[in-house]
Amino acid sequence: xxxxxxxxxxxxxxxxxxxxxxxxxxxxxxxxxxxxxxxxxxxxxxxxxxxxxxxxxxxxxxxxxxxxxxxxxxxxxxxxxxxxxxxxxxxxxxxxxxxxxxxxxxxxxxxxxxxxxxxxxxxxxxxxxxxxxxxxxxxxxxxxxxxxxxxxxxxxxxxxxxxxxxxxxxxxxxxxxxxxxxxxxxxxxxxxxxxxxxxxxxxxxxxxxxxxxxxxxxxxxxxxxxxxxxxxxxxxxxxxxxxxxxxxxxxxxxxxxxxxxxxxxxxxxxxxxxxxxxxxxxxxxxxxxxxxxxxxxxxxxxxxxxxxxxxxxxxxxxxxxxxxxxxxxxxxxxxxxxxxxxxxxxxxxxxxxxxxxxxxxxxxxxxxxxxxxxxxxxxxxxxxxxxxxxxxxxxxxxxxxxxxxxxxxxxxxxxxxxxxxxxxxxxxxxxxxxxxxxxxxxxxxxxxxxxxxxxxxxxxxxxxxxxxxxxxxxxxxxxxxxxxxxxxxxxxxxxxxxxxxxxxxxxxxxxxxxxxxxxxxxxxxxxxxxxxxxxxxxxxxxxxxxxxxxxxxxxxxxxxxxxxxxxxxxxxxxxxxxxxxxxxxxxxxxxxxxxxxxxxxxxxxxxxxxxxxxxxxxxxxxxxxxxxxxxxxxxxxxx
Amino acid sequence: xxxxxxxxxxxxxxxxxxxxxxxxxxxxxxxxxxxxxxxxxxxxxxxxxxxxxxxxxxxxxxxxxxxxxxxxxxxxxxxxxxxxxxxxxxxxxxxxxxxxxxxxxxxxxxxxxxxxxxxxxxxxxxxxxxxxxxxxxxxxxxxxxxxxxxxxxxxxxxxxxxxxxxxxxxxxxxxxxxxxxxxxxxxxxxxxxxxxxxxxxxx
Lengths: 639, 203
Known about the structure:
The structure holds two protein chains of two kinds. Chain A is α/β, with parallel strands linked by helices. In chain A, 50% of the residues lie in helices and 16% in strands. Chain A contains 19 helices and 21 strands. In chain A, helix 9 packs parallel to helix 10 and helix 14 packs across helix 17. Chain B has helices spanning 15-27, 38-42, 64-73, 89-97, 110-142, 146-156, 161-168, 172-185, 191-202, and strands at residues 7-11, 31-35, 51-56, 80-84, 102-105. In chain B, helix 3 links the parallel strand 3 (51-56) and strand 4. The radius of gyration of chain B is 24 Å and the shape is elongated. At the A-B interface, helix 14 and helix 15 of A face helix 1 of B.
């Protein structure tokens, strides 16, 4: 059994509300006993008049005359389910049974099915039975009493001729698929407006001949077009005929169960063989032909059949008394897009409501969204790129302006970095120095002993040597650090450098209440130098001078920065302060490393400055002729 | 009671310095133990020996000042001498306020270090002696009954037996007995000794 069980959200929602209600003992019990209790409550509510709002769940038994995977069955089931979904939401159940008479024919299989059905469904409540195909109709008529199912039956998939032969009980209703030859011709004529002639093909079988007769009568009053009926040809004859047709002709293929040579065909296969060779568009009344070579036709689909059957069943289940005994399935125009293209038929001529099957949209139609998206992205990207280009240009201009300032900032941070660095360097140097000193003193003590521990003395001396190397390495690192990235020399004006240094320290001088006077030479003082390094020296000299005057009244804190061209061609820059002058402790060699008079300084500034100036081939000295304050003189050779 | 020989604890993350200083101290006659981190030093098993700690201020992990803080929390607080590669005023002030014996900058002069160590060991010895004496007094005082303790406090305040007897509502003779027992239990002969002992203990 294939059972299509649908969820029932409405009922479940109600269950929850029951759960949440603290109504009476019943719901308490129910809560305590779980799912079994739930079933009990639901059973009760079906008979409880106060629970009348609970929608009754409709159950339908579907019986098919073929296996479940047959396209017609699947399509019909889809239509039935769609109609039920539309009317009942999800609140229904479908039970479907398939009697595969094509693959398992014979009374044995019939009997087995009948017995199985009785076993399964006897006494089961259903609201209606739907059958598809002749076998199912016969079965229902003969056996539904055994099942105790006295409910309405809707019959589909059966020809009107078959139904005409049976006297249907009053509660059995038929749904007939319409096969409209005039409709198909009208569709063909709308798409082939220039057609003067229509050819209707039928085979030699009995059913084929009945079709020919029916077509002749239905098309009797067709006007404006000549209709020829061709039958009693072999399949090759049909093919040749189709191949020789004027492309303007309308070719209608009904059925060829049998050809003139007595060969049997499945009609759709025969139709396919003919359409393959046809030079004119071909049409048919069968839905199943579409996709197999015909352009299209006025057809009714199995899905539509399912829809109509289900609606009939619903009305009957609802107790309606005015349900028609017979109903037609509406038909509609369906065309195969690929065949339209093959014959160059104009899509604009399609009647409204016509369905386009196998439609392969053009790239634009299929990917319109993607194309639009991609185009948008491209446009946006182009815009972004343009914006970036503009921005970049602006930035470059701005960069130009900022460049000078940035260099100055770098210098400032460089100085503060060096300050921090000198602390770390001092520490690094102190470590080996501490060891050396302690080792030396220990050695001193040990050699006075008797006997002398020579091994220990050797270890001490080796440690001292090792620590010395360590200290030397630190100094090497310091040197390399100072040379790092500063190897670029250029021709500079010492005056401009001095001005830049003054600008840079202006705020510092303001805070420290130092007045600065620049006495710069009129002509350019070109030197070959690394801008960063020389500026660093200048800053260092100026800050030293400022520090020197920190302890005196603000009005006496004066600094002069002067440049001049010496007679020997060297360029000289002097930083003069009016402080206490060089302290006696450092005066002997103010440029020695780690010599300082400042409580927080480590005495690296002047030492580094001198190293830098030496690297430039210049000199840095203190003018010892000055008595009032100090005067540091930087001299560089001409470029 | 004789103390075990003092131990100088050296704490520095630089093995070369540890080695050199240990040699220097050994040559000067000190026994020393070395540690390469604050954690290693603080985690050492407790020792009854007096001593001091020579601590590098710039240790990785817990710093020299951390060691000082931790030691201060212990009963037998080891005096601390700091060594630093870059002494700044703020740290040195903090270290000295924390009770450091000295704050020496590297490279440290051997004489300065040895004299600081001598000071530290002396201070620790004194500290331990005072502590021991205090403990001794405390033990003696613990043996007194509450009434004896009451009498003792009043004697130390300078009251006469008669006054004490009046205040406590007992006979003067009883007070005399209490006094004698207190003197005996605290192992003193004169009231002056008694006063010195008790006042000294109160600090």
